[in-house]
Amino acid sequence: MEPTPDHRRIGDYRLRELRAENETSRLWLAEQVSISRLVLLDELRPERTELRQAFIANMRAKAAVHHPMIGSVYEAADGDGHCFAASEWLAAATLQDRLQAGEPLTAARLAQILHRLSEVQLYHQSAGHATRPLGLHHIHCDDHDVVRIDNLVVAGARDAGQSTADIARMGEALQPLVADAQAGSTRMRTLLAWMRGEGIEVPLDWNQVREICERIEGQLVNPTPTTARRPGRRKPASRMLQAVIGLVAIGVVSVLALRSRSHKPSPAPRPVLPEAILISAGEHPTPDGARQQLEAFRISPHEVTIGQYAEFLEILQTLAKDGRDKVFNHPEQPPDKTSHLPQDWAALLAAAKSNGTWNQRPVTLDCPVVGVDWWDAAAYAEWKKASLPTQEQWHAALLLETDKPAAITPADWVPVGTQNTDRTPAGLLDMAGSVSEWTRLPAANPANPLGAKNWVIIGGSYLKPGSNALSREWTSDRSLRRPDLGFRVVFEEE
């Protein structure tokens, strides 16, 4: 890094160190003087005036990106003889730094990083962003496992093969970072080989990479030896995941076989969860006996879990460092609501991580999150680029392939995916029992159709004997929290 001798300024920015340069631009570490904030300042060389239009177009494309794991662009300017953009300085070490320092990472840590990276790449992919080739030097990870990615967006249309190329590049680049002789190392190396296209007929996509990483993370919490199977032709995601669960080294299996017969059996694997379920557009029955025209949508087959909600809170904690933790809040959220932590969250999360008990009930990270109010649920849905279901959407999903919804046997508060009878023929879980769920909009109670519209809580509850999939409650209090109240989300069908 080369310090600038005169500490020259460009607008509100004092240049401190030259970080990189090429024939068209210079990248500086700079200080935004008015607010004493360090930033990265990308400056177009003054003599390259013919590139100004393309430079500004790229910076505007970057500035349009809004994702908590992607570095933000604060300002792009063209005037007074300067063409530049100021962006967030991601100070944490990059994976390239760790590689050069000879600091390999455990499979669990790499799976977590690659999981987050997949989320970012799926965001770019869904938005159609063209991006520069992804490298280890673009991925930042601090000592608290917070992952941030440089803003690589450029102007233009996304290339059809960009995701495949990035996946293959990461499969190659991450190999040297896998720690030897650690739990899950074989599984991680197998995933990286698949990312490079080795041993498979169809390249992996980012959805599959993300789902495989989720399973590896889960297996390293609750390891279980099974039979390995490699992917061939593209199959439904659930089958792909079932194959991935079996990734355990033959050597490990052999060691387990030699252990004493009195050794306790391995814990059961974490459940393989189905994909969001499509509800077609058309006229659907409503809970009140009418019919309503609905647009097509996809609904989560299960309630949001403790583990999934914990990821959301981690993102909020990262955003709070820059005062951006309110970005997902509903516009009507009361000013005095300052946190999205569920009721008794510390105890609930600790018990779930250790497969312990909470409120005298067994709990795991795969149990539905509870103790959340409507504002919490709405903020989580906004983060997922989803929404809470309306009661009409929820009911339409319930009736998909279901003749007698009231006959579905309610479940206790158990991990989602646990084999029980609280499952619709279409694959929706825990609608008759487990936890009741928030819905998006207020509605009148048909018992008092002229009364005020209140917020609808739908579905059965493990704490309310006699409730079932047709049960509903109404409340005027969106701040209500209960140990049997959670939510699921719906996605627009594009």
Structural class: alpha+beta
- What's the alpha carbon Rg, rounded to whole Å? 25 Å
Helix content: 25-40%
Terminal CA distance reads 46 Å
Number of helices: 12
Q: From the coordinates shown, what is the CATH architecture of the largest domain?
A: Alpha-Beta Complex
Give unreliable regions as ranges.
Answer: 1-5, 223-268
What is the overall pLDDT average? 85
Shape: globular
Q: Tell me the β content.
A: 15-25%
And the CATH topology of the largest domain? paralog of FGE (formylglycine-generating enzyme)
List keywords for this structure.
single chain; 28% helix; four-stranded mixed beta sheet; Phosphorylase Kinase, domain 1; globular; seven-stranded antiparallel beta sheet; paralog of FGE (formylglycine-generating enzyme); 494 residues; 12 helices; Transferase(Phosphotransferase), domain 1
Descriptive notes:
- The chain is of the alpha+beta class.
- The chain folds into 3 domains: 2-88, Phosphorylase Kinase, domain 1, CATH 3.30.200.20; 95-257, Transferase(Phosphotransferase) domain 1 (Transferase(Phosphotransferase), domain 1), CATH 1.10.510; 277-492, paralog of FGE (formylglycine-generating enzyme) (Alpha-Beta Complex).
- It is 28% helix and 20% strand.
- The chain has 12 helices and 22 strands.
- It has helices spanning 52-63, 95-100, 107-127, 162-173, 185-195, 206-221, 237-245, 250-257, 306-320, 345-353, 374-383, 391-399, and strands at residues 2-3, 9-10, 13-21, 25-32, 37-44, 73-79, 82-88, 129-131, 139-141, 147-149, 153-157, 277-279, 282-285, 291-294, 297-299, 357-358, 361-362, 436-443, 454-458, 472-475, 485-486, 490-492.
- Strands 1, 2, 3, 4, 5, 6 and 7 form a 7-stranded antiparallel sheet that branches. Strands 20-19-18-21 form a 4-stranded mixed sheet.
- Helix 4 runs antiparallel to helix 5 (185-195).
- The protein is globular and about 75 Å long.
- It starts with a strand and ends with a strand.
